[in-house]
Amino acid sequence: MKLTDPNRLFPVDPQQRDLACALYSSVSDLPILSPHGHCDPRWFAENVRFSNPADLFVVPDHYVFRMLVSQGVSIADLGVPRVDGGPVETDPRKIWNRFAGAAKLFRGTPTALWLDHSFEHVFGIDQILNEATADVIYDQIQAKLATDAYRPRALFDRFNIELLATTEGALDDLRWHRDIKNSGWQGKIVTTYRPDAVVDPEFDEFKQNIIELGEITGEDTTTWQGYLAAHRARRAFFKTFGATATDHGHPSAATANLDDEDAGALYAIILSGDFTTQHAEKFRGQMLTEMAKMSLDDGLTMQIHAGSRRNHSSDVFTQFGRDKGFDIPGRTDYVAALKPLLDAVGMEPDLTIILFTLDETAYARELAPLAGAYPALNLGPPWWFFDSFEGIKRFREATTETCGFYNTAGFNDDTRAFCSIPARHDVSRRSDSAYLSTLVSTGRLREADAFEVAHDLAYGLAKTAYNL
Amino acid sequence: MKLTDPNRLFPVDPQQRDLACALYSSVSDLPILSPHGHCDPRWFAENVRFSNPADLFVVPDHYVFRMLVSQGVSIADLGVPRVDGGPVETDPRKIWNRFAGAAKLFRGTPTALWLDHSFEHVFGIDQILNEATADVIYDQIQAKLATDAYRPRALFDRFNIELLATTEGALDDLRWHRDIKNSGWQGKIVTTYRPDAVVDPEFDEFKQNIIELGEITGEDTTTWQGYLAAHRARRAFFKTFGATATDHGHPSAATANLDDEDAGALYAIILSGDFTTQHAEKFRGQMLTEMAKMSLDDGLTMQIHAGSRRNHSSDVFTQFGRDKGFDIPGRTDYVAALKPLLDAVGMEPDLTIILFTLDETAYARELAPLAGAYPALNLGPPWWFFDSFEGIKRFREATTETCGFYNTAGFNDDTRAFCSIPARHDVSRRSDSAYLSTLVSTGRLREADAFEVAHDLAYGLAKTAYNL
Amino acid sequence: MKLTDPNRLFPVDPQQRDLACALYSSVSDLPILSPHGHCDPRWFAENVRFSNPADLFVVPDHYVFRMLVSQGVSIADLGVPRVDGGPVETDPRKIWNRFAGAAKLFRGTPTALWLDHSFEHVFGIDQILNEATADVIYDQIQAKLATDAYRPRALFDRFNIELLATTEGALDDLRWHRDIKNSGWQGKIVTTYRPDAVVDPEFDEFKQNIIELGEITGEDTTTWQGYLAAHRARRAFFKTFGATATDHGHPSAATANLDDEDAGALYAIILSGDFTTQHAEKFRGQMLTEMAKMSLDDGLTMQIHAGSRRNHSSDVFTQFGRDKGFDIPGRTDYVAALKPLLDAVGMEPDLTIILFTLDETAYARELAPLAGAYPALNLGPPWWFFDSFEGIKRFREATTETCGFYNTAGFNDDTRAFCSIPARHDVSRRSDSAYLSTLVSTGRLREADAFEVAHDLAYGLAKTAYNL
């Protein structure tokens, strides 16, 4: 049996469905541009086999394991590594069986769509995963993983990925990217400059990170000018490994535009370690503006991912560390927050700043009006919890009428789950085709234009926004 | 003529409608679980007849009379009793006629659906209520009310209610529940522990309430430990009348987790009467955490109804008192607010905390991510203004993709309008069937699973969440 | 070819579409009531020809030019006049060609719908505007503009406008309205009292404005009583030019209700010039309550347009001044903000206060519950960015279930783009017909009632709310 419906996500009205299907068919074979995500470059540098289904689908994917946790499964029983040295399940088959037994929790979620798509289209599975089929499917996937056709590079080619951007911290030596480059393999994998650990004073080991930043760049990071120069040096270094963008994960969208003297004084306070949360917020905000100004010089597209309240559960953070499904969105203001940055560089036509939000209320009220006015601003696609059929629908419905399609930046999969990449782009292309067919059938868009827009949403806009 | 459309609330596409209808048919005859509401237990204890149509449908229902007030009818003219002793209309037929003459105000509202459903299915009315038909319909209902088949217990049975929970304050002697128990009648009516009046320092007569709490429990409520012991005693007492849950109506979702010493000191400040609004907020927040910890011990499910700005109009409050349709929702933060409580007990798999909101923006941004991670959290159904077709649709669309169905708690009617109970559960079952059929017809849910989910939403989830 | 689809905005299901079409047909020929907008009364006083297509469609319309700006076109290149004396494009054909070349930016926006409607129905254009057709269409429009049939008064008649309200500042001498009155032309054009410039202490030239207000009224505006008397005088003066309403554009919905002494003291602080932003906010809030009280006396309907963060870009404001597409909505609280005003006059059945919002999250959470309770409150139609198909849909879906249709105030076009008036009312009538047909086909509204409601939404409610 088929795990996925060939008409999934399309409107049900026959005429609308036909048009959605035609739009989708016109873009479904386009190569995948993945200009923002969290795949591990090491996979492609070493090209070793993925070890087992649990390590591929469950253990590293907080979308998956936190859902089981929400219904009482302990995180440790799902094999998620601990930072406190406590014991965790090590038998991948047991982990897999726990996951399979809880499949009903995912009903109606994008995770279910992605998993079914991967099972069917990547691994050729034709049974529904549940307690009864868990072992058989485990064995089928395991057998495939043992073959060369399922090594990372082979999958990369098979997924028709034209470009994949990974995300590395400012201090990363990019050794895996170097190895990929030296390997002679032609897959296009580029890095992205993500300097949070040397920009956010509240980051673990911030002070040590700044020292290290000085060491690897030869700049004097005890001074404001030296610190900025070190960033410039690292950005240039990242560009040599294909980076076309930076990325900034901040708790809020606050920006600042202090003059050089005040910024230097703030930096001194930060370095002293004797700073308040207000100082930290101001400094992060100042650095967004500094990064934007550097982007004006070096052409890197700037991404701002704002609004996640990270590590909400103290216990989970203490035991398991970051990125364990306990990052919760909060209200995020953009209008006042971005004003300093926008007053500095917002009217620059050659700058591209892509905004992402976890607060959907900002789409229509703040983000679309801002992106529909400032030349430097683009809207990123629905992020994280909102990378889903309903999320994409709400995004388009809330933003298109105010800023159109051409102030948006195409699709990002933003994933660390490699096998879900085709599934995620597929959901995006289908959801956009559904939306466009609705516009056409209600007289809000001409059919010929819809085909052009579908192509732009699936491919062209990402290419432009990220200078690919 | 029929007052209600047999296909109401189903999708219009024929295939989708057929599936929605099939899903609905599979659950429409399930017994009603009503684990949270505000019916008066005295009705069932005394089993006396309801006096007249106005007293049944208009006077006690703020959904109804505030709509007339919004268009200029005075509250007094609708017979709503005053707390200031002023005169009000006493002729039920006049009240009924005012109501009937304003029927157009309810067009497109769930109130209209509920009323039509009650008129047609409970009272056998077959004419549309308006000025011309007001008297006839009044007489028809009045005639029915005079019969034994329309006494509260008979209606309870006819409504196929398996369990009805009422809500009583911590100081209530539960005499009506005792009378029901002693009556030999088999209808299952349970109480719910709602301690707002002894938890909220800003409640009317708070200080007197605390004294009374001490008297009826024999605990020394002038001390923090005695006060907590008194709560434990009352919870145990409520359990003897079937309580499986507590309920907490707070202006915000703020929680606190002070240590014993600090909590005791705060209690002393509160008891002194010399406290600030910040003290009051902190105390309410501390008590939510205390209640959650007691729930860990005694197994009562905990409900939090946060975010209503009660008694918005000073004049209406002064003249008519509480619950008169002038409670207005406000923005409510959950992420920071719940962190102290969740750090204390959020990872407990055996605890159930059900969150309700009047701020729909929190569904996708805060509540679904929280409920999709913390084992202790469940999401309650759309509450109050959002207990409606569009409200349920928005709730499902905003939460399912992130926390699925199994972190939600089934339906609550939450009503004091007894005759609307079947109508409200019907709207809920229809709305969910409509949603599920949409998921199936767009390839997001398997048809067999949809039937299982429909049953869980209509019955199973409430049973589990409330330990029924 | 037709530029617009005769079935645009209707549902796609054939039965639903037929009903939507029937509802629309029943109201499409109703005269236009335009009780709030920003057309220039001078057009109708002088009745001179519009000069060229660019000056009609591009240069004065910030909906249009800010979209081009967002994609890198400079504002000056679109002929928008500067306040700093810098050079701007003066060739209307070049402006038109830039606009035409960027037509794809408007795909999916209401602007595209309005433009196509104007081109087709007002100017008889039958080609799609793009780079290739720009010149031909320019010439076609230009030729029409040269004829008498395209003078303002002729278009006013042809548009079937029953009444058009313009908006003038408190200091305006209303000379164009006087000229219209004296001209003998029968077109009904009335003014609206908009006193922001003499109410908002942060307005440019506020102090000078207050002096001027004293001069033209003969009141002593250096005293609080004199200042209030001056307002009363101007309101009376505006009424002689047909005003039935006032309008208030405030950054927030904050209100205050100080006693006379405190209000006088606050006014003194404001007049001294030595005030804080808190003083300014309080004063604006006090004036909303004063205006509401005056409305109780003189019967003027009161409009509150709250929540725009005006002139977000400092550069654009410095170079081009106000109303240039850089006004960005922000979060707006209504519940606490309006309480002082509502405690003062909210229960008055003879007062009409129409609330507008740019924060859609307030629809269901705050505005519908407020309007569904207080007799004095009505909800205005979706404003600005939300005057669109999706915006209207969200408004109806979020408000109807709580406050019904009869606490809303009909449609406003709120435009300065005269030729878009028929298009905007058409979108509104179609969108409401679509919504109503959905209610009927899902059993939430009776078909006969839907026709009555359609008429009220298109005509009756505005007539009542604005005392027309």
Provide an overview of this structure:
Chain A is an alpha/beta fold. Helices cover 50% and strands 8% of the residues of chain A. In chain A, helix 1 (14-27) packs parallel to helix 20, helix 13 (260-272) packs across helix 14 (277-298) and helix 19 (421-441) runs antiparallel to helix 20. In chain A, helix 17 (361-371) links the parallel strand 10 and strand 11 (377-379). In chain A, the strands form four sheets. Chain A has a four-stranded parallel sheet, covered by helices on one side. A three-stranded parallel sheet of chain A has the order 1-2-4. Chain A starts with 13 loop residues before the first helix and ends with a helix. Chain A has helices spanning 14-27, 41-46, 53-57, 62-70, 92-101, 110-122, 134-145, 152-158, 175-183, 196-199, 206-217, 224-239, 260-272, 277-298, 314-320, 335-345, 361-371, 389-403, 421-441, 447-465; strands spanning 32-34, 161-165, 168-169, 189-190, 193-194, 245-250, 301-306, 308-309, 328-329, 353-357, 377-379. The first copy, chain A, has two domains: 14-48 and 151-465, TIM Barrel; 50-150, uronate isomerase, domain 2, chain A, CATH 1.10.2020. Chain A contains 20 helices and eleven strands. Chains A and B meet through helix 4, helix 6, helix 15, strand 9 and helix 18 of A and helix 16, helix 17, helix 18, helix 19 and helix 20 of B.
